[in-house]
Specification:
Layout: E1 4-7, E2 26-29, H1 37-40, H2 44-47, H3 49-58, E3 61-66, H4 73-83, E4 88-90, H5 94-97, H6 107-127, E5 132-135, H7 141-153, E6 157-162, H8 171-177, H9 184-192, E7 201-205, H10 208-224, H11 229-235, H12 240-243, E8 247-249, E9 254-258, H13 265-272, H14 275-280, E10 284-294, E11 298-304, H15 307-311, H16 331-336, H17 342-347, E12 373-374, E13 378-386, H18 394-406, E14 414-415, E15 421-423, E16 427-432, E17 436-440, E18 445-454
Parallel strand pairs: 3-5, 3-6, 4-5
Antiparallel strand pairs: 1-2, 7-9, 7-18, 8-13, 10-11, 10-17, 10-18, 11-13, 12-14, 15-16, 16-17
Helix pairs in contact: 6-7, 8-9
Function: Catalyzes the formation of 2'-nucleotide products from 2',3'-cyclic substrates. May participate in RNA metabolism in the myelinating cell, CNP is the third most abundant protein in central nervous system myelin.
Main location: other
Family: Belongs to the 2H phosphoesterase superfamily. CNPase family.
Length: about 450
């Protein structure tokens, strides 16, 4: 049988369960053991049927496999290719397997092999191949960066597949298990090159079709607000033709889960490497949209988070020692800690024209309809911004939205349905302070999403 080890991780208490709990340990395997790859690489995107089905229909997923030599990258890529029959696998090694490119591996040919792989991946993105699997060691960030840039340019959602999440990695173990006779000193040098590629935040990402469908619904809801005279006067817009160009939708739609305050690397790294995030990373989750907040500058969706999703929201630990009786910060406070650098944020909050698709994972479940809104169980998804406005950091917007909603919520954070005005049947809205509105549709909209990171 396989030799297995469990690695105890040092994590903030709020990132995962107590360390004494068995689920708080990461089970890892030794490279070269006789364990089957299907037992080793148990990720949501390889074993969870709902996730597998969603990714197959998603349209634009890019798996980026990372790991030191000898940690099972070939096995993982083969598993992914078996799971997703339409996938294409790209690797720098394929350059040396082509008949016209057989040559000695040196710095020059290795550089050419990676350029060859990058060209192949870019062409696959242009053709819309799905999913794309990129398999290289990717030890340093710059080796991954090109593929991250391709994903952003061609609207692919990234799933970073790290073999190190499942393999015990030391120079001694790798030297003993590799089949190429590589020495301990070689692996010591290689492992020192490893650089974590930490996302600037994590969240639940919609695919292109669902984003288009949602934006179409939002436009319908916004048009209903033209029945409110105050809304028209504040925007100086009085018909749908004028209104059409006022807001521009975001290119990338996702509900923010977590990021460290002030982009602190240690906090982000601990959260991202926590057992809880590893367990659910790349998993399909339902996103339930209960309403929409409209200001003069932004439109955002109010997203209900189930219990598992709320547990994935990063809550910054206090510097002082805490006890079991200490109350955790509220979900709103946790989300308000989200902040990314201005340059990175602007890169990923560009706007696009409305484009609609009839293909969507949208569904409604009447028995799960929630008439009242509990703002303590909600997060936000920025949908659109005023055409003339520069993008604001998420921290500022989350604070703004939370403050606006708190004016209408009771002491338990509940906004009752009877507080809403009724327009045209069952369409409802509330006037919020500072020229803002909360729209409550007649039913919740639900979509499937992938829990992953925003990489820049």
């Amino acid at each position: 049988g396989a030799l297995k080890v469990r690695l105890r991780e040092k994590l903030p208490k709020s990132c995962c369960e107590e360390m004494d709990s068995p689920s708080a340990f990461s089970e890892k395997y030794v490279p070269g053991s006789d364990a089957d790859s299907s037992d080793i690489f148990k990720f949501p995107y390889t074993i969870d049927n709902e996730t597998l089905d969603f990714i197959r229909e998603h349209g634009r997923i890019m798996f980026i496999i990372r790991g030191p030599p000898g940690t099972g990258k070939d096995s993982l890529s083969s598993m992914l290719a078996d799971c997703y029959k339409t996938a294409s696998v790209f690797s720098a090694d394929s350059y040396f397997n082509d008949t016209f490119a057989k040559c000695r591996r040196d710095s020059g040919s290795l550089k050419m092999s990676h350029e060859y792989c990058q060209k192949k991946v870019r062409n696959a993105c242009i053709k819309g191949i799905h999913p794309i699997i990129v398999k290289n060691t990717h030890m340093r960030k710059f080796e991954v960066q090109k593929y991250v840039d391709f994903a952003a340019e061609y609207n692919y959602t990234i799933i970073m597949a790290l073999t190190t999440h499942k393999m015990e990695v030391t120079p001694e173990i790798l030297a003993q298990s590799n089949t190429k006779g590589l020495s301990v000193s070689y692996f010591q040098r290689r492992l020192k090159q490893w650089e974590d590629f930490i996302p600037i935040n994590t969240g639940w990402f919609l695919n292109i079709e669902d984003s288009s469908f949602l934006l179409k619904q939002v436009q319908i809801y916004l048009n209903h607000l033209l029945k409110d005279g105050k809304f028209c006067r504040c925007l100086d817009i009085f018909d749908e033709v004028q209104f059409r160009g006022y807001f521009k939708p975001r290119k990338l739609l996702y509900c923010v889960a977590a990021c460290g305050e002030n982009n602190a690397p240690d906090e982000i790294r601990s959260y991202y490497k926590s057992d809880s995030v590893k367990e659910h990373y790349g998993e399909c989750f339902p996103v339930v949209i209960q309403g929409y907040i409209v200001t003069l500058s932004y439109v955002a969706a109010l997203v209900y988070l189930n219990e598992t999703m709320r547990d994935l929201v990063f809550i910054k630990c206090n510097d002082t020692a805490s006890t079991e009786d200490d109350e955790l910060e509220s979900l709103t406070s946790a989300l308000a800690s989200v902040q990314v650098s201005e340059d990175n944020f602007k890169k990923h909050c560009s706007t696009i024209k409305f484009e609609y698709s009839s293909k969507s994972t949208f569904y409604q479940e009447e028995d799960k309809k929630r008439e009242d809104i509990n703002i303590n169980n909600c997060s936000y998804m920025i949908l659109a911004q005023h055409n003339k406005n520069e993008a604001e950091p998420p921290k500022k917007l989350i604070n703004l939205f939370s403050e606006l909603l708190s004016h209408e919520a009771d002491g338990n954070g509940i906004i009752k349905l009877d507080k809403f005005y009724l327009i045209e049947g069952r369409f409802r809205y509330i006037r919020l302070p500072d020229n803002a509105w909360l729209i409550r549709p007649s039913t919740d909209l639900s979509f499937k999403t992938i829990f992953t990171g925003l990489y820049v």
